[in-house]
Request: fold
Amino acid sequence: MKNRPFKFRVWDKLTKKFTPPWTNIETIANNDEFVVQQYIGMDDMYDKEIYEGDILEYYIGEGYNSHGPYYIEIRYERFRFCKVEVGSDDTDNLYYIEDSRVVGNIFELPEYYEQYKNRNKR
Reply:
């Protein structure tokens, strides 16, 4: 059995950019200026790594019978990674997210995050 790699990205609240994680992750984790997000061990349909805080777009069904787009946020809650419909607080396991695509994250695209919330309420 292959273990997933432990990877992190760090959001700097002051510069509003992702910065490379330093060697001492504890220094960053205990600092209110930074938000540490962990790679969940899965990639989207285009092989882009998925991290907590990412927003994914997906469709239900195929071809003419497809519905969507729908949006989910990846979170770490209750000692597990989970998906949450944007605009909801209902968590679910990470089923079928490999058929989704990363469209952004909650920090870099906050205005789109609000739009995604409204789209899911249709």
Summary: The first strand starts at residue 8 and ends at 12. The helical segments are 25-29, 110-120. Strands lie at 8-12, 17-19, 34-43, 49-51, 54-60, 67-77, 80-85, 91-92, 101-105. The first helix runs from residue 25 to 29.
